């Protein structure tokens, strides 16, 4: 639907101005897909702008189709897409700005972790589960996220979790149960063994990643703090040690 895509397309100059020309002072972070900047649109709306790497092999039409897919996902536990920009080699994804840090920051920093009482931890687990259920079952589409992890869970002003970063997500048909790929993407430590070793993924792959996330919240230990494990066994061993 080209009309829907056009309604989401934002003026590049306006987004550039909103982020003060993508200034370092507005930079929120940087990952494999590019850098993220905060900004404010002329109407006062605060935004987070993901400036995708220019090395991406994704074509313009594929990019627009991905944007349209994201725009159809509306749930209180998913980060909301505001729009996108295409200008020459520049590709921007514009999201609502989530005021608090990502969950991994709360787990990694002692002061922030101390704020995570049991009520808040349960709230984050429940909200993430609701967002995941929406992706897998309750929306008109069936989406496999494929990179569910603490750094992709953003926390709003009331500490409600919002699943973010759908760059690796895959769309399933409603009767499709699994898929296989030779291109393994995601984050070791959160990957289900059958996906990490054989490239097989399904809704169960996301559920496995969610399980690792739950263990991180319960133990207060980040999975990447454990060196040497590729599929989460080290964190599981840590948990089993205290359950005996």
Shape: globular
Distance, first to last CA: 56 Å
Largest sheet: 5 strands, antiparallel
Overall number of strands? 11
Strand order of the largest sheet: 1-2-3-5-4
Helix content: 25-40%
Structural class: alpha+beta
What is the rounded Rg? 18 Å
Secondary-structure element pattern, one letter each: HHEEEHEEHHHEEEEEHEHH
Query: What proportion strand?
Result: 15-25%
CATH topology call of the largest domain: Transferase(Phosphotransferase), domain 1
| Distinct helical segment count | 9
Under CATH, the homologous superfamily of the largest domain reads Transferase(Phosphotransferase) domain 1
Domain Protein kinase: 22-244
GO molecular function: ATP binding; protein serine/threonine kinase activity
Keywords: ATP-binding, Cell membrane, Glycoprotein, Kinase, Membrane, Nucleotide-binding, Receptor, Repeat, Serine/threonine-protein kinase, Signal, Transferase, Transmembrane, Transmembrane helix
GO cellular component, one term: plasma membrane
